[in-house]
Design goal:
It is a single chain. By secondary structure, this protein is mainly α. Helix content is 49%, strand content 10%. The chain has six helices and five strands.
């Protein structure tokens, strides 16, 4: 897979990307497991434990990410934790979210429900992802003609 245009392959290990991953782990993973304070229509209020995680997330973003979001890359697989991250960024740091790159890797083997989720997240939070596809193909059929059946590939086929 190609690196997003204008971004080096080292972006995934940049201090900004690492800060995003650390902050997300602190907030999103516990949030989606326990769902405290959720009512129909959204959060009524956060439990003290979850609020402290959101506060730490905000501190981490303020400390480690540029205010304009330039140079920040967040790779998403449209998992619940990824979507919580986008929601938190929209609520607390819209200027960072606006300037950062949200990158989605489409292997051409995503579930249809994943594509629906991606579209809904992009629309709800007003952040279009930079979609990246396998090199030189745009459909699953083209993928199979060029690379073969993904189910028959060895993990070593993905090492570069």
């Amino acid at each position: 897979l190609d690196a997003p245009q204008g971004l080096s392959s080292e972006s995934a290990t940049s201090p900004s990307m690492l800060a995003v991953r650390v902050a997300l782990r602190r907030v999103a993973a516990p949030a989606v497991r326990s769902w405290p304070g959720i009512q129909r229509g959204g959060f009524s209020s956060l439990s003290p434990a979850l609020q402290s995680k959101v506060d730490q997330f905000r501190k981490d973003v303020e400390t480690h990410l540029p205010r304009d979001g330039k140079g920040v890359v967040f790779a998403t697989a449209w998992l619940a934790t990824d979507n919580v991250f986008v929601a938190l960024m929209k609520d607390h740091f819209p200027e960072v979210l606006s300037g950062m790159n949200l990158v989605a890797i489409d292997t051409l083997h995503l579930f249809p429900s994943t594509l629906v989720c991606a579209r809904l997240v992009e629309e709800k939070y007003g952040k279009k992802a930079m979609w990246k596809l396998p090199q030189d193909v745009t459909t699953r059929e083209e993928f199979e003609l060029k690379w073969g059946d993904a189910e028959e590939m060895d993990s070593a086929d993905f090492d570069f």
